[in-house]
Amino acid sequence: MWDLFWTFMKIGFVSFGGGYAMIPVIEHEVSIHEWMNEAQFVKAIAIAGMSPGPIAINTATYIGYSVLDIWGAIVATLGMLIPSLMIMILISSMLYKVFHHEIVKSVFYGLRPVITALIIFAALIMAANITIFSSFSWDLVVNLFIFVMALYLLIRHKKHPLLIIVLSGLVGMAFFG
After folding, report:
1. Is 69 left (phi over 0), alpha (psi -120 to 50) or beta?
2. For residues 169, 38, 121 and 131, what is the CA-based torsion angle, rounded to 10 degrees?
3. Between 20 and 30 A from 73 (CA), which of 3, 121, 141, 157?
4. Are 172 and 146 in contact (CB under 8 A)?
């Protein structure tokens, strides 16, 4: 149980850029500890992403539950939350005083490409492990259609992500239900 707590606490302390940027770090730790195989991890990310709340917290909760039931979920969630809470309190109190300094602005500007790379890497991991992409099929065509239309509606028409999620779910029900 402590291993679960300390692992997610470590992830919480060293991961920056939000939940999706944390996915590669979580995946690495889950793999090392052999808590889940790759397919189970992709399922965990999918469920965590569809659930309300931050994906990193939801993922920690799901993984913790799969390892040690309810106590695992509690311990993993606390492990992930405590560092963020401590860091945000500390940074908020300090950053307010120094945010106007050029060096601080430069550090944040320099972190942007790394955070973007981590998010893209997480998306590639998820896409590579979706079994429908393994061969050409009707399922592949429908999923590519949903993907392209979701991007189109988000980028071109600035539609709300919740609307895109609901519409994608309805299209999925129509084609796969």
Report:
1. left
2. -50
3. 121
4. yes
Between helices 102-128 and 38-50, what is the axis angle to 10°? 120
Residue 13 backbone phi and psi in degrees, to 5: -80, -30
Structure tokens at 131: 């079994």
pLDDT tens per residue across span 19-55: 788 888 999 999 999 999 999 999 999 899 888 888 9
Give the DSSP letter of residue 28. H
- Of the CA atoms within 13 Å of residue 170, those in its CB half-sphere come to 7
Q: List CB contacts of 95: < 8 A, sequence separation 6 or more.
A: 104
For helices 55-98 and 38-50, give the axis angle rounded to 10 degrees: 60
